[in-house]
Amino acid sequence: MLERFCQNSRDLGLIKDGDKIIVALSGGVDSMVLAELMLRIGVSCVFAHCNFQLREEASDSDERHVRHYAEQKGVAVYVKHFDTKKYAATHGLSIEMAARDLRYGWFEQLRQQLAYDKIALAHHADDQIETFFINLLRGSGINGLKAMKPINGHLIRPLLWASRTQIEDFARQNGLQWCEDATNAESLYLRNKIRNELLPVFDRLFPECRKSVLRSIGYLSSENELYRAMLQNRLATIIRLENDVQTIDKQCFCEENGKQLLFEWLCPYGFNTDQIGFILRAMEGNPGKHFLSASHQLSMERDILQLSPIMEEISCEALIDSEMREIQSPMNLRFSKFEKDGNFVMDSSLEVALLDFDKLVFPLKLRKWKTGDHFRPLGMKGSKLLSDFFVDRGFTAHQKKQTFVLLNADGSIVWVVGQRIDDRFKLEPRTNIVYECHLIG
To answer: For residues 48 and 70, what is the distance between their CA atoms, to the nearest angstrom?
Structure first.
């Protein structure tokens, strides 16, 4: 397994000479094997452990196990405690999604603080398969059935090729100790039902089923990339944009696959599948009809469809100069700036944005998000439409309505308030002055 790990990491460019890597170490068998393999191939790394405080003593036991292993190996370990239940309730998220947000947010902040290159996660082949069936049973299209990538920005997944059985065999053969999460054996959640009940049936009926599913996932991932590129090209050729209003000729949706094209155009703006079905049928009737999502209005004229933002969504604004300390409208924010010295510690809370003061141009502007807003999420190299960011995070219509953005004087987004800063304004090792924005209540 060690040889395969080395070969795969080298072939895919996951680990390069000189890389400094944070290994996400939960204490479970997957992450313990990942940590052991990283150390055996001589990677310069540290461990990062999240205590989500969800399983009382068991959570603390996992933390103790990770600390003990790190001490044995002589590797630094960073531990973060989260009030996951409170965060989930505050942000209207499931516990699973809340833990994901907290985990990834802290990992990236730690990576920046330490000036490390990558974050290694222990996802493996069985995780891919389980996620595939979860999305299949929920009715996902090709975008939901595609695989996790071995490398995504600063995140790497060096074990995606390995099965859970291979990982456990390696752990036993090498005397590794790990923590068992008792809830994994319970079929209370969909993932566990798939793992404990559905997949064993497939294994009995089709012994090679897991290999076949992984092969299909690979095909779907490649096909999805091609489909997305073709879709964007197609929309670019048929959308006429004037200010914030998009116009498309009706006839574009009368072609084969017109419903799918209409869905891909309108879904990022909050229109659901049922609405899109109504819209498609209404195109055969009289003009003048209007359809609303939480943020947009679709107007149906004789030969065209026009999509425009609901203007009240962007009516609340405020300007912030470099000396302002607090605002209470349209939302409560506090501001401060200070020198970054040796005692500086990153705050991982999503309610706090830590920005490089020298990259900002004042006055900053606070307003509600609007159509076409895009930014570069922390840890990513490319830009992303804010509407796509909302879709990825499963935002409800109410959450979208309440979302504000903080803008630089040049109009670029600095912070999606309470969610994610823009990568271009993050703290660097050379940062001298930190500008802190704190969301209050």
So the answer is: 10
- Between CA 268 and CA 65 the distance in angstroms is 43
Query: In Å, how far from its chain's centre is CA 362?
Result: 29
Distance between CA 105 and CA 92 in Å, rounded?
17
Q: Which of 309, 340, 357 is the last residue of a domain?
A: 309
Number of domains into which the chain is organized: 3
Question: And the tokens for 331?
Answer: 């939302």
Residues 37, 95 within the same domain: yes
The pLDDT score that the predictor gives to residue 344 is: 81
- What is the domain extent for residue 253? 240-309
Burial of 383 (0-12, 13-18, 19+ CB in 10 A): middle
Query: Which of 410, 309, 325, 310 is closest to 365 using CA atoms?
Result: 410
Q: For residue 24, what are the contacts with CB-CB under 8 A and spacing of at least 6? A: 31, 48, 49, 50, 103, 107, 119, 120, 121, 122
Q: What is the CATH number of the domain that holds 26?
A: 3.40.50.620
Statement to judge: residues 18 and 36 lie in one domain: yes
The answer to whether residues 267 and 319 belong to one domain is: no
Query: Could you tell me the CATH number of the domain that includes residue 291?
Result: 3.30.465
The reply to whether 108 falls in a domain is yes
Cβ neighbours of residue 123 closer than 8 Å, sequence gap 6 or more? 30, 148, 157, 159, 160
**Domain annotation covers residue 229:** no
367 is written with which tokens? 């307003």
Task: Give yes or no for a contact between 400 and 294, defined as CB atoms under 8 angstroms apart.
Answer: yes
Instruction: Give domain status of residue 223, yes or no.
Output: no
Give 393: exposed, middle or buried? Use CB within 10 Å, 0-12, 13-18, 19+: middle
Judge whether 63 lies within some domain.
yes
- Domain boundary among the residues 284, 309, 334 is at 309
Residue 129 in contact with residue 210, Cβ under 8 Å? yes
E strands, 224-332, in order: 240-242, 245-249, 290-292, 296-300, 304-309, 317-320, 326-327
Rounded to whole angstroms, the Cα distance separating 88 from 96 reads 9
290 with 374, same domain?
A: no
Per run of 10 residues, the mean pLDDT along the chain (length 441 residues) is 92 93 96 97 96 90 96 96 89 83 92 94 95 88 84 94 95 94 69 91 94 93 90 93 90 87 90 85 84 85 88 66 83 89 79 94 92 90 89 75 90 94 93 92 63
